[in-house]
Design brief:
alpha/beta, seven-stranded parallel β-sheet, five-stranded parallel β-sheet, 14 helices
Length: 363
């Protein structure tokens, strides 16, 4: 099948933004359907399917009707690729997935990628992981239990819709490998895409001063900040040849400025696989501790070559990993260079876009 026109629906972690750029750079017409105006960059062909998102109770009544109206007016596409959820309708939940028959008539290939805790891919549904962020996330980030109360109960209906309407399913990490138990066809592992050209090169170099260690939690529970702080206290008993800071709540420009001065960055400890933040930091030339377990490497072969150092949720193990880095600063140059090379060979957004295209073309 020749693919000339693609619709990307929703975005999570900027993955669809990078694919949007890649497809258009490759000469393929690509649009994005977003729900609330986009906060990401360089998207000229985006459509706001949910203009009443911030209009409170009044908006809540009319939002699904507007979504369906906009969907009826929508052009036809060769591919519609979803992340985050598989419906144009968010709430009320009883209407979710009622839009899929309309969309199915307008596209040739329906595609879904699991890369976040939506009603299909929520990590708590994967019982085969050695550990997960779910308990810590509920304790510190989701104290009203939105995920177990509202998201997880939708999985049965979502799974039926996935099998009825979708032609291909992908997973960006072993955390979402349980999609294979929900989808009757094969689920394909797919690395995250990154546009390396936009990442500022601010590498860690061999240094004689104290090592600047930074932790960058967007969500302290999900990222495991409590475990990181325990590890830092243990590290203090081993050496004083480091400084430590937590960076969160900054604007993007401020974040880059602070991160630019960091040597070693602890991204998260409860994950098996690296997320977009860890890959971005690799692209900056930083030494990154994040998810990179053997389970993850066995699921996606590309992770075998990753220079990301696995960040264990066990504070003693994490402290030892940090201590080993501090004792051998001569490795910093090599790790930094390996990081950017690894991204170019395994996560370049055009490379990942081509993998999607090749897969869709076979359907």
């Amino acid at each position: 099948m020749s693919i000339k026109k693609i619709l990307l629906v929703h975005d999570t972690r900027g993955a669809h933004e990078y694919l949007y750029r890649a497809f258009n750079q490759m000469g393929i017409e690509c649009d994005m359907a977003l729900f609330g105006w986009p906060t990401i960059n360089n998207i000229s062909r985006s459509y706001n399917f949910d203009p009443l998102r911030k209009f409170g109770v009044v908006g809540k009544v009319f939002r699904p009707l507007i979504n369906l109206y906009n969907l009826h007016k929508m052009e036809e596409y060769d591919v519609a690729s979803f992340v985050h959820r598989i419906s144009f309708i968010d709430k009320p939940h009883f209407l979710r997935y009622r839009d899929l028959p309309i969309l199915r008539d307008k596209v040739n290939v329906m595609s879904y990628t699991g890369l976040g805790c939506d009603e299909l891919s929520f990590i708590a549904g994967n019982g085969g992981l050695p550990y997960s962020p779910c308990d810590s996330c509920q304790k510190y980030d989701d104290m009203v239990s939105y995920c177990p109360r509202k998201v997880r109960p939708l999985q049965t209906r979502a799974s039926k819709a996935l099998n009825k309407y979708f032609d291909s399913v992908y997973s960006i990490g072993v955390e979402y490998s349980h999609l294979a138990s929900l989808y009757k066809k094969e689920v394909y592992p797919m690395p995250l895409p990154v546009d390396i050209s936009e990442i500022p090169w601010m590498p860690t170099r061999n240094i004689s001063r104290k090592v600047n260690i930074v932790h960058t939690p967007s969500r302290s529970g999900f990222k495991g900040s409590a475990q990181v702080l325990k590890a830092i206290e243990i590290l203090k008993s081993k050496t004083n040849d480091f400084t430590f800071n937590i960076v969160s709540g900054l604007s993007f420009d401020e974040y880059i400025k602070v991160i630019g001065n960091a040597d070693v960055i602890i991204d998260q400890v409860w994950s098996q696989s690296p997320g977009m933040n860890a890959l971005w930091l690799l692209g900056m030339g930083k030494i990154v501790l994040s998810g990179n377990t053997e389970v993850a490497k066995n699921y996606i072969n590309e992770y075998q070559e990753s220079p990301i150092i696995d960040a264990s949720p066990v504070p003693e193990i994490l402290a030892n990993s940090l201590h080993e880095l501090i004792l051998d600063k001569s490795r910093f140059n090599d790790i930094s260079e390996r990081g950017i090379q690894y991204l170019k060979e395994n996560h370049d957004h055009k490379l990942i876009a081509k993998r999607y295209l090749d897969s869709w073309a076979e359907i």
